Amino acid sequence: MKYEDADILAFVSERPKKDLVPPMNSGAEENAGLKDIREEGNPENNIRDSAVNSLEGASDLATILTPDTPDTPEKLLASLPEALRKDYPENVSEILPKTVSGTIFGSSESVPETASLSFPEASLESHAFMNSEKKSLPFEAFADYDDGVRNISASSEAFGIVTTGLDPLEITPSGAVITGYITSARRNEIRLGTYVVVPYERGEKLFARVGKLQYRQEFVVDDATEIHSRRMLSARATPVKEEDYKFLACLDPLCILYRKTEGTLTRRMADRIPRPNTPILPVTDRLEVQTGLNIPEDGIFLGHLSVGGELLKTHSEPETVAYYLRNDYSMGDPLIFRHMLICGSTGTGKTFLSKNILRQFMTENNRYRLRSSPDKAWKNSCLVIMDPQDEYSQLFEDNETLNEDDKFGFESENVTYGRVRSTKAFVAKVGGQKYAGDKSRAEQIEFTIPFSLVEYNSWLIAAAGMSELQFIGLEVLLGDFFKSSVPHTYLNFLNHIENEGTRSYYVDSGKLHESSYDGIARRVKSKFFSKVFDQDATSIIDILDRIFKPGQISVFPTEYISAPRIRDLIVLTIMSLIVDNKLSTSGTDAIKETPIILALDEAHRYLSRASGEHSRLIISRFADAARQGRKEGLGLFLITQDPQDIDDTVFKQINTKLILNLNNDAAITSLKVPKEYERRIPYLKKGQMIIHSPDNSDIVEIVGLSNCVVRHR
User: Fold this and answer.
1) Considering only CA atoms, which of 518, 547, 546, 555 is closest in space to residue 425?
2) What does the CA dihedral 545, 551, 553, 554 come to, rounded to 10 degrees?
3) Which residue, 176, 164, 144, 167, is CA-closest to 271?
4) What is the pLDDT of residues 77-119, one digit of tens each?
5) What does the alpha-carbon distance between residue 194 and residue 676 come to, in Å, rounded to a whole number?
6) Could you say which of 478, 575, 578, 672 has the lowest number of CB atoms within 10 Å?
7) Distance between CA atoms of 125 and 80, rounded to whole angstroms?
8) Burial status of residue 120 (CB atoms within 10 A of its CB: 0-12, 13-18, 19 or more)
9) What is the pLDDT of residues 37-60, one digit of tens each?
10) How many whole angstroms separate alpha carbon 179 and alpha carbon 161?
11) What is the mean pLDDT of the chain?
């Protein structure tokens, strides 16, 4: 007898039952009426029917399986008709169920005489299925896992099961191969990046992310043929059935979730492999997601976790998963002092996002203690914004479009909203230019840049095309000028280098070459310097205590300035003031002892790769400031559409990157995120972003708020 023949009556079928086998108490005429059907059907059915026909005359199954039934396969074989013994000489025990309200074979127990064993509507096949509890489970249950896992059925929420049918399960120090079979009913709900859990015994769970999806044929068939393709394209073609294909999901383990003795949910590295046939379940608990991805439960709100642009929903309240940035000293210094970068193409919502995030830093409970401060007092930060589009002064204004539902949602997730009353606009006075200042009601304070600042920052008047020899010569000229007793203004310096006697002194003495001296003079006489330095306004040096004030937002708009070089000069002046005073042991107290967040829009313009000597000086100073930011309480918040242009020495100090849509391959590569996320970046929609912050959480995708917490026009 063949193996497949022997197991026919024990086969568990989930197909709709066909009444090919009559009830056990049916008459001989009904059985005879089915004879032709059996003969025309599958030959395998005839084998099974031979067993049924040999038992004709019994009123029900109880008539056969009684306490008087022979209790061993050998005795039963001897009692069967000759035809049946011929077909099943050795394996007769396999054609009948081993358990019917007790064990017939292989056990000393007998079936009680009062047991009801009649199955008038079922064949032997379905009878064997209904009485086999082990075969009713689609996976192996774990003794210590919750009852919900034990009772998973085809209608459960499981995506599918872990399988070894195609690839072996394995886990190594360098990676893992965990393949899951996804049932046809759940295939539309799973995608790349979907988070799942796989239970172990004792309540532990593997927390994983779907890293690859794959279809395979269920049956051996060549569907790469002209006939097949025409049949499928035909309007009369039968739709493809999902049951005809294997749908596989490859899982990337992220961690194992478990509870400590005191009940706290925590995580550890994925060091165990799940068992075959274990269910693959969607993540439905917000705490499991936050713990699995190491997301803080509070801090600076950045957005909501998403997969493929769709918000991740849980069974918790609220159902979305908020993403927070650590902003305290519980695990080191706040991450703002380890610097942040927002990058995205034009029109992707960088300013909108920046407003929402920067507003979170300006709450009363966000206080910092500077290591260098003598009193070690906790202070709010001062937010300084370089604003090329005159949009950030709107932090002073409420968003009048917010309704009560919006506000309730913000409050439920600890999102700060509403204007910052201490917002001020500091406007550089530039000859021939006037600031409109009509985008907000924030107080406007006018200032000018004194030429005296150039004494220790010669690069402020160094043109980009100035050679190394010319830059050295400029420093010599400035050094001698600031030693003189004349007022240290730009006009006096211009008169100094235009003096023929001065020229002869430096050239004839050999201190400067003639061509170098003339080149310096041409660049210093540029007309725009006279429009910036020493204007009729308060010197910025005299209002440092008004600019750098704890809890204040100080905005420096430059949109009204038509000349890009003047804009750059103003921005570089503010940046140099902050850096010089932060790094100096004798810096101005207003800067030295105040936590400062410097938000720099179009950061690539000021922190680009060095192209000359003066550029290298700028970069080296800001690299030093970035490295010492944690100690000195200085955080860089850089906003750019060209991250690849930021100098590497500064870029390496950035801990948190918020990546919006980018289409520039060089820009994407420079961000150094995992390959699977690199491929997503060009397809991110507005408001959708990838967060790469290794010291905060695993890399994730989030969606920012759909409403601005302050005015945005």
Assistant:
1) 555
2) 10
3) 176
4) 555 555 545 554 455 444 444 444 444 444 444 444 444 444 3
5) 13
6) 672
7) 20
8) exposed
9) 444 444 444 444 444 444 444 444
10) 9
11) 82
